[in-house]
Specification:
Helix content is about 50%, strand content about 5%. The chain is mainly alpha-helical and about 220 residues long. A two-stranded antiparallel ribbon has the order 1-2. Helix 2 crosses helix 4 and helix 5 packs antiparallel against helix 7. It is globular. The two termini are about 25 Å apart.
């Protein structure tokens, strides 16, 4: 059983705050990411179809086919990069690559450990029944945002505050950055669980900062 300070065992979300950030670019990023949004519409349709196929694969074989897993992981990675660049964090001015790959040089990264075996019984209930408490929590964070999309949720509100702060002070508050990344980390953990990519239930805790917490460290101390 994991201690409160242990890293989440299957989903790793990391982010680096770029310095300096443009004082004005964030105002126009909604235009710049339109090509990504168009592509992501089709990718998320495919993501849903792949998840349905994976549901039956896990039910009958206890395995999430590796090729399908890698595709869904790629969609989540792409979405996290676009969200981090735009109004999910505004943590970088580096334009996101059009890529399903890991892109280790990009400041926003996501990795999900491939499960060799998944529970047949959990696959029947985890994406709706077991995940309901998590959905209620992240609904407050996102107001229904899927990574990369504009929303009126807490994450977007805090991100806009960060944007205005950068404009007037040329500084992104580190505590605010840590909180925003922590909220996104929670959402991505739930997304991985609900899309059947892990049987590890997302913890009800806010792991703030740009790095995943490590055992024996204060998870609230690292702001990236």
């Amino acid at each position: 059983m994991d201690t409160p300070s242990a890293p989440h065992p299957s989903v790793a979300v990391t982010a680096e705050l770029d310095k300096p950030l443009s004082r004005w670019l964030w105002l126009f990023k909604w235009i710049l990411v339109i090509p990504h949004w168009i592509v992501l519409i089709f990718l998320w349709v495919a993501f849903f179809v792949v998840t349905v196929i994976a549901f039956f694969a896990v039910l009958f074989t206890e395995r999430f086919p590796r090729g399908l897993f890698d595709f869904n992981l790629g969609v989540l990675r792409w979405s996290w990069r676009v969200s981090y660049y735009s109004y999910g964090a505004l943590g970088t001015d580096r334009y996101p690559p059009f890529s399903l790959g890991p892109e280790p040089d990009y400041p926003a990264r996501l990795d999900i450990a491939y499960p060799e075996r998944l529970s047949r019984s959990l696959v029947l209930v985890k994406w709706w029944l077991l995940a309901i408490p998590q959905y209620l929590v992240i609904a407050f964070f996102t107001s229904g945002m899927h990574a990369g999309w504009w929303s009126s949720g807490l994450i977007t509100l805090l991100t806009l505050i960060a944007g205005f702060t950068v404009t007037f002070s040329e500084r992104y508050p580190r505590d605010l950055f840590a909180l925003i990344v922590g909220l996104n980390r929670w959402v991505l953990r739930v997304a991985a669980y609900a899309s059947l990519m892990t049987d590890t239930y997302p913890p009800f805790r806010l792991d703030q900062g740009g790095e995943e917490p490590t055992a024996g460290t204060d998870r609230f101390a690292n702001a990236g």
